[in-house]
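Throughout our pipeline, every protein is held as a single compact record rather than as scattered files. Nothing more is needed to write down the fold, since each code stands for a local backbone conformation. For reference, a complete record is included directly beneath this paragraph.
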Amino acid sequence: MGMIKGFAGMETTTGHETDAVLIAVGVLIIIVAAFGCFGAWKESPKLLYIFVGCLILIILLELSVGIAAAALRPQIEGTMKSQLRASFIKNKSVRDEDSTYREFWDKIQTSLECCGVSGPDNYAASEPRLNPSYSCCPPDDSDRAVEIKRSDCISLNKYYQDGCESKVFNTVHSAGLTVIVCGILFCFLEVIGIVLALWLAHSIRTEKGQEAA
């Protein structure tokens, strides 16, 4: 989400919201794990069943978040696309108040090795008509002056030819895939935890029943 905000909103993200969510999830996991550990230590089927119920609840929450994210993906991508294009127009502005957008696009074009929304032609496609930004040019480690480097890059068309929109979405999709894979792995581990907890609770109840008999 921080990456999406950074690409779409052009605002500096503090990450406080993400930190709060991670802390809350961490506390929940500690509490749930405590039920499992304490239940196994005390051989208490009730605590183990509470542990199982909490794991099932966590899995349902994870599935709900995954389904919601999948359903909202087209809307989020549409918003990102429109905001990305709007910010590019402001990036071409010479007004001081729009310098944030120029800095943003310089950073994106340098880090993702791209130029413009769909390509370097975007700079000359609408008013004001400009040459591609120097951030569209590959790194030049020579000792020449910056203006000479830029002039050489523009005159020889050395700048990046790929648009940033596709690069941004590829980066976001890659991060999303990582989250999905991690989510599936965690769900698998939680299912194993449920099976083992139920097996242990059943074993404890059976053993206590035999002792009582």
